[in-house]
Amino acid sequence: MTDTTPISHNFVAKIVQDDLAAGKVGKVVTRFPPEPNGYLHVGHAKSICLNFGVAEQFGGDCHLRFDDTNPEKENQEYIDAIKDDVRWLGFHWAGDVRYASDYFDQLHQWALHLIREGKAYVCDLTAEQAREYRGTLTEAGRNSPYRDRSVEENLALFEKMRLGEFDEGACVLRAKIDMASPNMNLRDPIIYRIRKAYHHQTGDKWCIYPTYDFTHGQSDAIEGVTHSVCTLEFEDHRPLYEWFLANLPVPCVPKQYEFGRLNLDYTVTSKRKLKSLVDQQVVAGWDDPRMPTISGMRRRGFTPRSIRNFCDMIGVTRSDGMVDIAMLEHAVRDDLNKNAPRAMVVMKPLKVIIENLPDDHLETLSAPYHPDQELGVREFPFTREIFIDQDDFKEEYSKKFKKKFTPGKRIRLRHSYVIEATGYDKDDAGNVVLVRAQLIEGTLGENPADGDNPKGVVHWVSATHSVKTELRLYERLFNHQMPDKTDGDFMEFVNKDSLQVITAWAEPALAGVAPESNFQFEREGYYVADRCDHAAETPVFNLTIGLREDKALTQN
Ligand code: ATP
Ligand code: MG
Question: What is d(CA 520, CA 515) in angstroms, rounded to the nearest whole number?
């Protein structure tokens, strides 16, 4: 069962609820602030569910804001993919998409404000010198020799930086806070850098770019964000976040709260590492069904509901933890079991000839798409020659295989008749290649009149009227539980057998389904019509997940 603990039980929702009750805020405003330097992954889904979820729950707004202060690493493809992913998960951002770059003018004004107040200075130390001056966790830093430049000199130098008169790295603008602070983030942090880079939103307008720290809180303030929720690694940045808000004439003062990142075992969730999997062509792209990206999970056949349920299940805590990937798989399976239509596909075909039917027998049978949901009915052809799975026939009866088909024994064809095996043929290698059988009259939806009831039910398709389909069978991308937490390179743990492509035979209705339709292929697993490659003439389905967690249990 999916644990649908109401979101209000998480600590962020509790804070919001208390702030609303105490009248501290009138309307809650949150934001999801991705950097468009890669595709979103399952960890981002947690942040999306939290930020959009809390806003939704308390009648507030959640903004989608691109944190776009690193033009060299960002691009439009990522922006488009991120918007798609958020929409696909079922969330709606308030107003237009926003960009931190929309605020570059304001941020520049605020940088000037700090300079005029004597709280920022242009520093010419090289990166290496700056590191030396910065001190260590146990040792205070030293003031930069440029720290006491006059306001006029700083204004003039900063203007020259803006006009492109200095090379990249020649100088930076720093906030003047405290080089002896035990919090390294407060040791005169950089607020502007020279980057002679074209920006996807602002073009060539700027050659100086604000740092993340100088951008984030002020963007929150401009947008009237009330609760700025981020992951724990920003906890140490909170004093700086608050320092900027306290020292600038901002329109409001948002508060930052931190929660634990999602880490999933058998998975890497770092955009840099995911990008190297794409760049080194270990996978077919960011949306490869083996990727833990939202678009990868989508292509794999995970549903938005299953991902949202998973995020509810794992909850939100103040500490980082490792989540068992089986929880995600459970959420997917649970949702698909409840909601995915059923269909029959034979993967290892064994031909059965039902000899008491005429050669041209063609009967249309039908069955509901789902055992207990109103998903309609599909029709499929029943013919003299059918395919069943090779594993469902045994040459000899044994107690272990008593549900199987053997000569002299009966089996029920799912949604069809009972048949009895009368004989079989083998090839030179000793494999059974053909089974001969008799149809037992009057057994469509009824037990045989003679009381000799079949023990098992098998899936099947018409041998002459089924459609050939490509199946892409995916397994975990990594064969190590913590691929990026060892001494070695995470790439060493890529599972080389994580994709297998096979051909299977499907009931005809499957060819015509829309891409991204989810199914349970009865007794085989959950599959989805591939979002990109599935077409009526060339059906392609991806394995989403097996029927049960323990493969051994799927044997019957
Ligand atoms: P990466 O480290 O993979 O590059 P990031 O944190 O730099 O990711 P951003 O685009 O800055 O990526 O993230 C947008 C938001 O998503 C941030 O608020 C961040 O805290 C959150 N986020 C990123 N990764 C996770 C995660 N694993 N679990 C929960 N939230 C996450
Ligand atoms: Mg980030």
Answer: 15
Positions marked catalytic: 35, 261, 271
Q: Give the predicted TM-score (pTM) of the model.
A: 0.94
Type of residue numbered 131? R
Strand partners, 98: 65
Contact criterion met (CB below 8 Å) for 83 and 66: no
Domains for the chain: give ranges and CATH numbers. 11-259 (3.40.50.620), 271-341+469-554 (2.40.240.10), 345-458 (2.40.240.10)
What would the mean pLDDT of 93-110 be, rounded to a whole number?
98
Answer whether 134 contacts ligand 1 (Cβ < 6 A).
no
- Distance between Cα 35 and ligand 2 center (Å): 6
Please indicate whether residue 317, judged by its CB atom, sits closer than 6 Å to ligand 1. Answer: no
Which one-letter amino acid corresponds to residue 224?
G
Residue 510 CA, distance from chain mean position: 26
Cβ atoms 198, 209 nearer than 8 A: no
| Other C-beta atoms lying within 10 Å of the C-beta of residue 445 | 9
* C-alpha of 182 from chain center: 38
d(CA 97, CA 545): 34
How do residues 413-446 score in pLDDT, each as one tens digit? Answer: 999 999 999 999 999 999 999 999 999 999 999 9
Q: Helix 304-314 to helix 325-339 angle, to the nearest 10 degrees? A: 140
Within a 13 Å sphere around the CA of 462, how many CA atoms are in the beta-carbon half?
Answer: 20
